[in-house]
Amino acid sequence: MIREQKQQNTTETAVNYDRLLSAGFRSKREQKRFSKLLTYSVIYQQGGEWDENVIRETRDYCEKQVRRLGFPDGWGGCGSYEELKRWFFQACR
Predict the structure, then answer these.
(1) Angle at CA of residue 19, ends 6 and 11, nearest 5°
(2) By the 8 A CB rule, do 11 and 43 touch?
(3) Distances (CA, A) of 27 to 5, 23, 31, 38
(4) Measuring CA to CA, which residue among 39, 30, 23, 6 is closest to residue 82?
(5) Does residue 71 contact residue 40 with C-beta atoms inside 8 Å?
(6) Model confidence over 37-72: pLDDT tens digits?
(7) For residues 25 and 38, is the Cβ–Cβ distance under 8 A?
(8) CA 19/CA 31 separation, integer angstroms
(9) CA nearest 62: which of 41, 83, 86?
(10) Is the pTM of this model over 0.90?
């Protein structure tokens, strides 16, 4: 049973890795790094009906965290997932 579990986990990992590479990422580490950026970017772009002070504080926090993670400037102007991913591949590789 343990052998079957290990084999299943290995197969799932290989399938997930293939999906990762087909999305354009070179490694799991690169994909995780992009995921962090995507999270802050989505939050940064929110606001709509929020109070102005909440929007300002939220954006300031996102900018601070993205800087702490070492991303270069330019991420905040990306308005879509594809645009952010394209920017990431150009600016962060």
Answers:
(1) 15
(2) no
(3) 24, 11, 6, 16
(4) 23
(5) no
(6) 999 999 999 978 889 999 999 999 999 999 999 999
(7) no
(8) 11
(9) 41
(10) no
Structure-token match 């270069």, residue found: 72
Q: What is the dihedral of CA 73, 37, 66, 84, to 10 degrees?
A: 20
| One-letter amino acid for residue 39 of the chain | T
Percent of the chain with pLDDT over 90: 61
Amino acid at 81: Y
Question: Is the pLDDT assigned to residue 11 strictly greater than 90?
Answer: no
Closest CA to 42 of 87, 73, 81: 81
Alpha-carbon dihedral angle through residues 57, 58, 62, 65, given to the nearest 10 degrees? 60
Please choose, from the candidates 32, 27, 30, 24, the residue with its C-alpha nearest in 3D space to the C-alpha of residue 86: 24
